[in-house]
Amino acid sequence: MNQGVLAPPARRKANEDGRRRTLISSDSEEEEANELQHNGLARNIWWVNQGSSYQEAEPINIICAPTDDSKPHWKRLKEVRQGDIILHYVKKNLLSVSQTIAPYTIKPRPYGMRDLVYLVETVYYQLKPPIPFSKLSAALPSLAIDEGPINKYGTVKQGYLFRLDNKALKL
Q: Is the peptide bond before 132 cis (omega within 30 degrees of 0)?
């Protein structure tokens, strides 16, 4: 997946709003490794299944989920830190990568129902072209990530937010 996901800021191309961006490939693995560090700490890598919420969340640069702690895949939003990396999976494709700009807050959902949600602000970077799951499906199960997005059959789990690790970014 070495498609410039963590390209240095100078190699990112801003859209008119200055926050949504399209990724441009990075040539240096050292640059990518440096980008995985944030204030001296390794960043968390996350996978979010978004379905129809992507169309509402991407333009306003957020992810959010109900404040129902009985669902671990929603409760994980409380573990997201500033500078974390999120892979956005929608309808059998990775469409975007985002970087969080703040830890979660509890706010009314800014679209649809106005229920209270865990909300994380991000900056979305659209993948051009999107990466089909079929290109990742053989390699992701071999990572065997606890609480990861892939089940034992090699398909995407039902749920919202899942852990990944740095190895997943190399696919």
A: no
- Is the model's pLDDT at 103 over the cut of 60? yes
Q: Is the model's pLDDT at 18 over the cut of 70?
A: no
- Tokens 């679209």 locate to 111
**Which residue, among 163, 111, 84, 171, has the nearest Cα to 136 in the 3D structure?**
171
In the block, tokens 């963590």 appear at 6
Element at 111 (helix H, strand E): none
Mapped onto helix, strand or coil, the DSSP state of residue 130 is strand
Please check whether residue 89 is in contact with residue 138, taking contact to mean a CB–CB distance below 8 angstroms: no
Q: Can you read off the two tokens belonging to residue 164?
A: 């990944």
| Six token digits for residue 75 | 């409760």
